[in-house]
Each structure stands twice: as structure tokens, then as C-alpha cells.
């Protein structure tokens, strides 16, 4: 069913197209109806200096608007994420951050979404990453690509490793610059629909772009409107996620040297300690041996474990093949696939407006307006728990068999069990413990509504003086992103009142507390799925709502041009100054702030900082043009420096220098060296001491104790802790914190410094004149990040504690273990749980290479084909090959090195990935086969054949087919169109599932074969 938003968007498209067409008929334009790019001066991403070509000293990739449309991308993020150098993104696939549902952030080189700077037309774009620990992304001003439409895009330039000297903070992994058309005339409409081969995952997009010249071409007004809607999927909608793979303890393993892996893959993972209708235990523990039993209806005289069925009746319960706490294969335990989102749907309304006015031949005014409204929901999420694998308010619930909601037969069956504690308040009754995943109390879905508005006003000009060309500009940039997140939850006090029930004098079941009854308490039946009444759910329910806003204000002024004439050309420069203020606030409502529900109390956050930056850039041609000789056809040097004064992080310098050398006309050799930085984000600086729920990798868990950078050190430290707790030194710990959360705290740090990055790249571009249409580029990139801002998580804290030879007390004191060796969360005795927080501690070292090969030729360029063609058009082929190789990807969270994590070759960081576009064009027909390759990848390189099997997943190939046909000659003239083009795309042509052992999320395709049809028309 088409939504009201689609109908509204379609009406707007028709109205705008009709109005523009009517105006075009009333007044003839002074310029042809073509979109044209101003080529008076070219500014390549990574520099502000105007130059005669688009070749940069830095590695650069260019994605054209034609490529975006021809491949059916409805979101710019999808196009960028298909680049081999793009890492695992933050996107609507998989579990979503509580305050990040539906977002699209890019992650170049897998260095973090907050280390990629996104620009639009060379200027910053306001971010959408909420200032909260639960946004799903690292702290920073990440740009949500949902806010950037596909209409009016000219191209997207991506430079790798650097850009801070020219653009400032965040440009460590690189810079993505979305460049729009500066001049558009006519009207273009575009519609596209997509659906999977399983008849789901529908995607709609409708778009209109319109523009016109006025005042003899001195004024151009243009704009676009785009509506895009995606659909939801759950884990059960695809086999790769529905099969619920899990690594489990291998029962065949005996020792650490027997050649038998400690962990193996099991299918159909279930959580045997909890069900949606409820399990009854003898005590508050999680041992399945404590489950209550009932008479086996299939085997008279025998007993079988029981669960609560509809209406509170007891029915047989199959716990499946038990492996370890919270992990079983099969059975009736809770299936997380029933409660997990595969794709969260997003609806986007994106509008733009551009104005360009030539005040004189040498002074121009232009402005930009971007507006985006989007909504999203995480369709599946985990429910309200009461289970023995959790603690605090989420622990299992003690009930008396006197509870009036229990059917008589159920009460009798429970009392027929031995080992139950007596109910002192009700003689003859007993106490049992209920474990339940209460999906019927509320789904915990998070919904979001968000808006973004960005405006730019720019005055620029150029002039000549002393036979030299100069240019200048002053600009103001205002952006605001704001919205709300909301999710249902329960009021814990009301919940406790509602489950404590008795019968009144009339025999009706009521809440025990008279005060609660007077306040509207409705009794809550927890026995059996679907038992809670609407009245009870309404009474205990509460809505969590959080408002957020990010505000960006920026001013800049630039002046540049020619300085000195050298034999090879002009020495060029640019100097400028910018002022920027970033402000962010996050405001949860009272129920969320007070922590009345099951989620952690969420604290409000507000903060801001300003940065004043002065910068200069120069380009010196040493050789070139007529001033050249063999081996030195051209040589250019360039350099840039930026002085930054951040109101909180202090002063810092960013710098870069580079060289472009042509020993022969066909070969360009280039190299750069730069010092970049990332300023601390508002979340990292201002986060109050906030409650958070944590899971962690426990080094002392039996599955991990023999791993790590130094297994001997880890084992000795763990054994020392076991002994101190009164446990055997060889204690076989299954740590609950690896599967269930504990409550702790996390806080910001206003003393944070800038992250620093030392970067260099070297490469070449080869275009042999003897092979027409061939271009080869290669670049080697090195990035070393120090003083990395890290959230010293519970996993990191425990790793430092147990992997350090000295076992530092200041780190080890940040968490506690109980007598069973389990990590302890916050309690009612004043202990706040594990203490995490942001520090400048870590470092990351990255090395990688990119290789690009482009080869285009006409079939008639081949002599024997040309001869047989007799002048006919045989068409032509184009090959575009893009390869990315990771040579090093290692991180030390502590910065001490002993915890060095080598991610190279792991899932999401393959050694080699590549993409090959093979295109055939002939007349109106264009066909492209895109083959993508992701190399063999390890789950974790710390694992060995002794600890896990399998260790890795196989190579993965994905094929997409894109076809387009220009219908202009067939229908364009008769229908009044200047151009009509139809397209068909089939993504994942052979329906290839991700490699065995993975869910595919964020790395491999999860949709399967997918069809898209589209139509583009221009008039």
C-alpha cells in the first residue's frame, strides 16, 4: 500500500514539474536546457587552490552521478559503501543504536565513522550523531547521508588519508566531498521501485529536479525534491540470520593441547533459561536442573520439565541441546531471531534549493539550502526480561503458588515438585521463580523522527592584478539537525505493584496495595504468553522520549591566486580564516532520566565548543610546459598548514606537503605527507557519569583464558584471582558477562586532547599513449594514529588487568567479581558497577594500497572487427577495476602495545577486496556486470586451531547486473521529452548468501537477489 507521504510527494513532483514547464513555455530561456558545470576554475578536493586539472597529489576516487543512477542506488551511502576501501558502516542493517535508528555513516578504511570528514561543495555539513553513549556510533559529528539527495549531484570525490590541513578536524581516514551541479536548466523526473526475489524489502524512490536561468543567464535557480522509502526485515526473513549460528563449548575438547578445538559452531541457538511465556525454577539460579517438572503426558509415570503455556497452563518444555549458560541448540528456549531486526525501515523527504547570481562578470553570489525530514523504526527489539541470567530488576521473579492468576491444575503441578521453599505468608503454599521474556508487555521498538536544515550564503569573486589572477570568497554556513527518539518501556514501581496480587472480598483479582489500587493499579498476569491484560499493560507502561539537536555555525574567508611567475608556471596560493561553533544537546524526558524502567537512567547532555582556524596553502611548479626535459616533464610541490585554536582541546597545527612528478608524459608519480587530527567530540567531553549496561569479553572465561597476546600472563593473573576468591586455580569459568549485561557507569572527560595522525601516501597514475583508453593508478597509504580517544570499556579494562604482567591496581579496581567469579554489576549497597570512560590512550596503525584500472575502447578500434563492421556501430567495452589491500590494521586500546589487536584479514577487514565493472554500450543500450570480491577472512586472529573451528570464512563473490536503454528516439519526441531512459538492475544476480559461519551483517549481502526498475525523463 502506498503511503500518504508518497502520494504527497508525487503531488509535489507533478505540481513543480507543471509550474516549471508552464514558465518555460511562457519565457524562452537564454541558455540551452542542459546542466553544465562551471569550468572557469577547478578546485579539486583536498585543496582550495584553483588549478587547470582534476589530478591531485593525494589518492582520490571519483563517483559520478551517472554511475549512482545507473546502478540503482537510492541513497548516496549505498554507493559509497560499495567502494572496496569503505569499511563496516553504521547503517539501517542489523541492531540499531538506541539513539541512532536508521542512520547512515561512512567508515573509510575501517578507521571509524568519526574519522571521515564529509563535505558538500567543499564545506562542512551539520552532523546527525546524537550526543549520547547509545547512538550506535563513536562520538563525533558524523554526517547522516540520508540527508543528502541523489538529485543535483554532479560527482562525489573521496580523498584518502588526510585533508585536515585544508579542512580541519576529523579528516584522518579521508574526506568525502559531495559536489552538486552549480547550474541546472529544465525538469528531470525519476522514479524507481525495488523488490527482492522473495517478494519483500520493497524500496520506493521518486525524485524531481528542476532549474531555470533568468536575467539573460545571470541568475540560475534550481532545486530538487526526493522521497525514498525502505521496508523492514527481521532475522527470520533470511536463512543466514534465521539459522542462529553460535560458537559453543566443544564437549569433545579435553585439554589445551589435544588438537581438538575448544569452540565449534552450533545451529539454532536458543536461550534455554527463558521463554516468552515463562519458565518456573525452584530457586533464583539459572541451572536447568532447577526447572520445575510436570507429569509427562506422553509417558505415564514419568516427569518432564515444564513451561507456562497459554492461559497459565503447564505444558512440556524442551530445553534443547545445552552447551553453556544462555546457549542451547534447538528446543523451546527463547529464539533471538524472533526479536532481532535485519533492516530498519527509513522514510526520507529531502529537498534542496540552489541560487547563483552573477552580480557582475567577476562577482558572484550563491546560496544552498538542504532540508531533510526522515523517520525510522527498529521493527524488532529485545523485550522486558526477568530471568536468572540477569541481575537487579531484570532478575527472575519470586511468586507464591497462592497467586490467584495460577490455574488450579498449574498450582497443584507446581506443588508436586520437591525442593521448593515454603511461603511463610501463606501456609501450605510454596515459592517458585519465574523466568520470562515479556514480549507481550511492550516491544521496546525505538522510533525516530528527525529534521535537518542547512543553509549556505557565499559571495565570491575574481580579478586580475599585475597580470595575475586572484580569487576571494566569504561564506556563512548554518546547520541544525534535530528530532526525537521514543520507545515504550515499563515503570518498575508500577510493575512491582501490578504483579503483587490478591483476591478481594468479591473474589476479583486486584493489586495488593490499596494505595496502588487508588492510583489505578491493574493486576498483571505473567503466566503464559498473551496473559497480560490491556489494562495492566496500560498501567505499567511508560513512554521514553528523548529530544536532540546539533547546531553548526561556520564562517570562512579565503583569498588566493597567483604570486610569482616561474618558467614552469605561476606559484599559486590560498590563505583563509574560519570560525566554527559546534553545539549539541540531548534531553531525555523525566521517566528516562529518572530510570523508572528497565533501561539505564539516561542523563541529559549539553555542550559546545568553538574553533578558530587560520590556514595557508601553496603550489609551486618547478618544471612543466615548455620548461621541461626528458625525465622531468613536470614537477610540482604543494604544501598547506592550518593553525587551530579549539576552545576546549587547545591549539594544534595540521600540515601537509606533497609532490607531483611526471618523468614522462604518460606517467605521474605522486606522494604526500601530512599531520592530521580529530578534536574530541561533545559526547566524549561532556558525558556525565552515566549508567550503562555492559557486556564484555572476559579474559578469564574458559574460552578465552588461553588466548590473548600473552596466554601465560593472562592465565597466571586469572588463576590468582580465582584463588583469592576461594575457587580452584584451574576453575572452569563460564562468564555470564559475555552473554548478559551488567550495570556500570561511563563518563566523559573534559581534559581530552586531540587525536593525532601521522600520514603519508605514495603512488602513480599511468596512462600509456600507446594503449588508447587505458589508465592505471596505484597508491600506498599509511596512517598512524596516536592519543586515540577511546571509551575504556569493560572489555578493555579487563584485558589491561589480566594481560599486563604487573596487573595494575588502578585498572583492576574498576570492576569486581563475586564468589563464583562472575562480574558484578551495580547493587543496592553503594557499588556502581564497572567504571568505564573516555581517555586519550590508544593508537591505531594502518597500511593499505588501492589499485585502479580503467580501460575503455570501441570494438571498431580492433582492426579486424572494424573491417567486418563496414562502418556499423559495434559498440564499446569499458572495464573499471578497483582493488583495496590491507597490509596492516592494528589497534592498542591502552596504547601500551601488549593488547595489540591485529584486525588485518578479519571479517570486515579482508586482506584483499575488489570490484570490477564490465560495461558494454551500443547506441541506446548500456549493460554493466559488476563483480565484487571479498577475500577469505578470519573470525579473530587470536584464535588457533586449538581454541576454535572454523577459524575463517571463505572468499565471497557478488555479481550485480545493470541495464539501461535510452527511449528518447522511440517516445521522447512524441511525449515532449528531451530524454527518456529506462533501467533495470539485478543485485546479487546469483542469489549468493554470505559465507558459512557469518550473519553477513555490514559485510556481506543479506537481501539476496534483488530487482529494481527505474525510469528517468527530462524535459
Descriptive tags:
single chain, 1019 residues, mainly beta, 22-stranded antiparallel barrel, five-stranded mixed sheet, 16 helices, 50 strands, 43% strand, disordered N terminus
Verbal overview:
The chain is mainly beta and 1019 residues long. The chain is built from 16 helices and 50 strands. The strands form 9 sheets. The protein has a 22-stranded antiparallel beta barrel, surrounded by 5 helices. It has a 5-stranded mixed sheet with strand order 1-4-5-2-3. Strands 13, 22, 23, 24 and 25 form a 5-stranded antiparallel sheet that branches. A hairpin with a 7-residue loop joins strand 24 (421-422) and strand 25. The chain is globular, with a radius of gyration of 32 Å. Mean pLDDT is 91; it is low at 1-40.
Gist?
Helix content is 12%, strand content 43%.
Q: Specify the overall morphology.
A: globular
Q: Enumerate the spans where pLDDT stays under 50 for 5 or more consecutive residues.
A: 1-40
Give helix % range: 10-25%
Strand content: 35-45%
Total count of helical runs of at least 4 residues: 16
Euclidean distance between termini CA atoms:
30 Å
- Biggest sheet descriptor: 22 strands, antiparallel, barrel
Cα-atom radius of gyration? 32 Å
Summarize the SSE layout with pairings.
Elements (H helix, E strand, L loop, with lengths): L3 H23 L33 E5 H6 L5 H6 L34 E5 L2 E2 L28 E8 L3 H4 L6 E7 L5 E11 L6 E12 L4 E12 L2 E2 L4 H4 L3 E4 L13 E4 L2 E2 L8 E3 L11 E3 L7 E6 L5 E3 L4 E4 L2 E3 L11 E3 L2 E13 L4 E15 L6 E3 L10 E4 L7 H8 L5 E2 L7 E9 L8 E19 L2 E23 L1 H8 L1 E3 L5 E3 L2 H5 L15 H7 E26 L2 E20 L1 H5 L10 E19 L10 E13 L3 E15 L2 E12 L3 H5 L3 E5 L16 H14 L17 E6 L7 E12 L7 E19 L1 H10 L5 H4 L22 E24 L4 H7 L6 E17 L8 E2 L9 E11 L2 E10 L2 E2 L9 E2 L2 E2 L2 E11 L1 H8 L3 E9 L22 E9 L1
Parallel strand pairs: 2-5, 11-46, 37-40
Antiparallel strand pairs: 1-4, 2-3, 4-5, 6-7, 6-50, 7-8, 8-20, 9-19, 10-11, 12-18, 13-25, 14-15, 15-16, 17-18, 20-21, 21-26, 22-25, 23-25, 24-25, 26-27, 27-30, 28-29, 30-31, 31-32, 32-33, 33-34, 34-35, 35-38, 36-37, 38-39, 39-40, 40-41, 41-42, 41-43, 43-44, 44-48, 45-47, 48-49, 49-50
Amino acid at each position: 500500500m502506498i503511503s500518504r507521504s508518497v502520494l504527497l510527494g508525487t503531488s509535489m513532483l507533478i505540481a513543480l514539474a507543471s509550474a516549471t514547464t508552464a514558465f518555460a513555455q511562457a519565457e524562452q530561456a537564454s541558455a540551452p536546457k542542459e546542466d553544465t558545470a562551471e569550468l572557469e576554475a577547478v578546485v579539486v578536493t583536498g585543496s582550495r587552490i584553483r588549478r587547470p586539472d582534476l589530478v591531485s597529489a593525494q589518492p582520490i576516487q571519483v563517483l559520478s552521478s551517472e554511475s549512482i543512477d545507473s546502478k540503482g542506488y537510492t541513497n548516496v551511502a549505498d554507493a559509497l559503501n560499495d567502494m572496496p576501501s569503505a569499511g563496516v558502516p553504521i547503517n539501517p542493517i542489523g541492531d540499531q543504536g538506541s539513539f541512532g535508528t536508521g542512520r547512515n555513516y561512512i567508515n573509510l578504511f575501517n578507521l571509524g565513522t568519526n574519522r571521515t570528514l564529509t563535505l558538500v561543495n567543499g564545506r562542512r555539513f551539520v552532523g546527525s550523531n546524537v550526543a549520547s553513549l547509545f547512538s550506535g556510533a563513536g562520538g563525533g559529528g558524523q554526517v547522516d547521508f540520508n540527508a543528502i539527495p541523489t538529485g543535483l549531484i554532479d560527482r562525489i570525490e573521496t580523498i584518502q588519508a588526510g585533508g585536515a590541513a585544508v579542512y580541519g578536524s576529523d579528516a584522518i581516514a579521508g574526506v568525502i566531498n559531495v559536489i552538486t551541479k552549480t547550474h541546472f536548466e529544465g525538469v528531470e523526473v525519476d522514479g524507481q521501485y525495488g523488490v527482492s526475489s522473495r517478494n519483500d524489502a520493497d524500496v520506493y524512490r521518486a525524485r524531481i529536479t528542476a532549474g531555470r536561468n533568468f536575467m539573460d543567464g545571470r541568475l540560475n535557480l534550481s532545486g530538487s525534491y526526493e522521497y525514498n522509502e525502505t521496508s523492514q526485515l527481521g532475522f527470520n526473513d533470511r536463512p543466514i540470520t534465521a539459522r542462529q549460528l553460535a560458537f559453543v563449548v566443544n564437549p569433545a575438547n579435553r585439554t589445551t593441547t589435544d588438537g581438538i578445538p575448544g569452540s565449534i559452531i552450533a545451529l539454532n541457538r536458543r536461550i534455554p533459561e527463558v521463554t516468552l511465556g515463562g519458565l518456573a525454577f525452584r530457586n533464583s539460579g539459572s541451572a536447568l536442573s532447577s526447572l520445575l517438572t510436570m507429569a509427562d503426558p506422553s509417558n505415564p509415570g514419568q516427569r518432564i520439565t515444564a513451561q507456562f503455556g497459554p492461559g497459565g497452563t503447564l505444558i512440556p518444555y524442551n530445553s534443547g541441546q545445552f552447551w553453556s549458560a544462555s546457549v542451547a541448540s534447538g528446543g523451546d528456549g527463547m529464539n533471538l531471531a524472533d526479536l532481532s531486526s535485519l533492516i530498519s525501515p527509513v522514510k526520507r523527504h529531502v529537498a534542496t534549493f540552489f541560487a547563483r547570481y552573477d552580480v557582475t562578470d567577476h562577482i558572484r553570489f550563491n546560496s544552498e539550502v538542504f532540508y531533510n525530514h526522515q523517520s525510522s523504526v527498529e521493527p524488532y527489539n529485545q523485550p522486558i526480561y526477568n530471568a536468572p541470567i540477569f541481575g537487579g530488576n531484570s532478575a527472575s521473579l519470586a511468586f507464591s503458588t497462592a497467586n490467584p492468576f495460577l490455574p488450579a491444575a498449574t498450582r497443584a503441578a507446581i506443588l508436586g515438585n520437591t525442593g521448593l521453599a515454603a511461603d511463610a505468608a501463606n501456609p501450605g503454599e510454596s515459592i517458585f521463580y519465574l523466568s520470562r521474556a515479556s514480549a507481550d508487555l511492550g516491544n521496546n521498538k525505538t522510533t525516530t523522527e528527525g529534521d535537518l536544515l542547512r543553509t549556505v550564503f557565499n559571495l565570491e569573486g575574481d580579478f586580475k592584478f599585475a597580470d595575475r589572477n586572484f580569487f576571494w570568497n566569504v561564506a556563512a554556513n548554518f546547520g541544525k539537525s534535530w528530532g526525537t527518539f521514543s520507545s515504550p518501556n515499563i515503570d518498575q514501581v508500577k510493575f512491582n505493584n501490578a504483579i503483587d496480587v490478591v483476591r478481594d472480598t468479591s473474589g476479583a483479582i486486584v493489586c495488593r496495595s490499596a494505595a496502588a489500587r487508588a492510583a489505578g493499579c491493574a493486576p498483571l498476569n505473567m503466566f503464559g504468553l498473551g496473559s497480560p491484560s490491556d489494562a495492566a499493560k496500560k498501567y505499567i507502561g511508560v513512554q521514553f522520549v528523548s529530544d536532540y539537536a546539533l547546531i553548526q555555525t561556520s564562517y570562512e574567508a579565503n583569498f588566493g591566486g597567483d604570486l610569482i611567475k616561474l618558467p614552469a608556471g605561476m606559484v599559486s596560493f590560498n590563505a583563509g580564516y574560519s570560525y566554527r561553533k559546534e553545539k549539541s544537546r540531548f534531553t531525555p524526558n523525566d521517566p528516562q532520566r529518572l530510570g523508572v524502567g528497565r533501561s539505564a537512567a539516561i542523563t541529559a547532555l549539553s555542550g559546545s565548543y568553538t574553533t578558530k582556524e587560520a590556514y595557508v596553502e601553496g603550489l609551486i611548479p618547478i618544471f612543466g610546459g615548455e620548461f621541461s626535459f626528458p625525465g622531468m616533464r613536470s614537477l610540482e610541490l604543494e604544501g598547506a598548514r592550518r593553525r587551530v585554536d579549539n576552545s576546549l582541546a587547545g591549539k594544534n597545527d595540521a600540515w601537509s606537503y606533497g609532490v607531483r612528478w611526471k618523468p614522462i608524459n604518460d606517467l605521474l608519480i605522486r606522494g604526500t605527507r601530512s599531520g592530521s587530527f580529530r578534536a574530541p567530540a561533545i559526547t566524549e567531553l561532556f558525558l556525565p557519569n552515566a549508567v550503562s549496561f555492559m557486556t564484555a569479553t572476559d579474559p578469564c572465561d574458559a574460552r578465552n583464558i588461553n588466548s590473548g597476546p600473552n596466554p601465560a600472563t593472562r592465565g597466571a593473573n586469572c588463576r590468582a584471582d580465582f584463588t583469592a576468591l576461594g575457587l580452584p586455580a584451574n576453575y572452569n569459568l563460564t562468564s555470564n558477562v559475555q552473554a548478559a549485561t551488567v550495570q556500570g557507569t561511563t563518563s566523559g572527560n573534559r581534559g581530552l586532547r586531540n587525536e593525532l595522525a601521522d600520514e603519508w601516501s605514495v603512488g602513480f597514475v599511468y596512462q600509456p599513449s600507446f594503449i588508447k583508453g587505458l589508465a592505471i593508478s596505484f597508491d600506498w597509504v599509511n596512517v598512524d594514529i596516536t592519543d586515540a580517544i577511546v571509551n575504556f570499556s569493560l572489555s578493555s579494562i579487563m584485558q589491561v588487568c589480566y594481560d599486563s604482567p604487573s596487573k595494575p591496581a588502578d585498572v583492576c579496581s574498576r570492576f569486581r567479581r563475586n564468589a563464583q567469579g562472575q562480574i558484578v554489576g551495580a547493587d543496592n549497597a553503594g557499588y556502581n558497577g564497572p567504571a568505564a570512560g573516555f581517555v586519550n590512550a590508544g593508537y591505531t596503525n594502518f597500511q593499505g594500497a588501492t589499485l585502479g584500472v580503467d580501460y575503455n575502447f570501441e570494438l571498431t578500434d580492433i582492426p579486424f572487427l572494424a573491417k567486418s563492421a563496414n562502418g556499423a556501430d559495434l559498440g564499446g567495452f569499458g572495464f573499471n577495476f578497483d582493488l583495496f589491500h590491507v597490509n596492516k590494521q592494528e589497534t592498542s586500546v591502552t596504547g601500551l602495545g601488549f593488547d595489540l589487536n591485529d584486525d588485518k584479514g578479519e571479517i570486515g577487514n579482508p586482506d584483499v577486496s575488489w570490484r570490477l565493472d564490465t560495461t558494454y554500450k551500443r547506441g541506446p543500450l548500456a549493460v554493466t556486470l559488476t563483480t565484487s570480491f571479498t577475500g577469505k577472512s578470519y573470525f579473530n586472529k587470536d584464535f588457533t586451531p586449538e581454541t576454535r573451528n572454523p577459524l575463517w570464512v571463505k572468499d565471497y563473490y557478488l555479481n550485480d547486473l545493470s541495464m539501461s536503454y535510452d527511449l528518447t528516439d522511440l517516445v521522447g519526441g512524441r511525449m515532449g521529452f528531451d530524454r527518456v531512459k529506462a533501467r533495470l538492475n539485478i543485485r546479487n544476480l546469483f542469489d549468493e548468501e554470505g559465507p558459512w559461519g557469518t550473519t553477513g551483517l555490514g559485510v556481506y549481502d543479506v537481501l539476496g537477489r534483488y530487482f529494481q526498475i527505474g525510469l528517468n525523463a527530462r524535459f
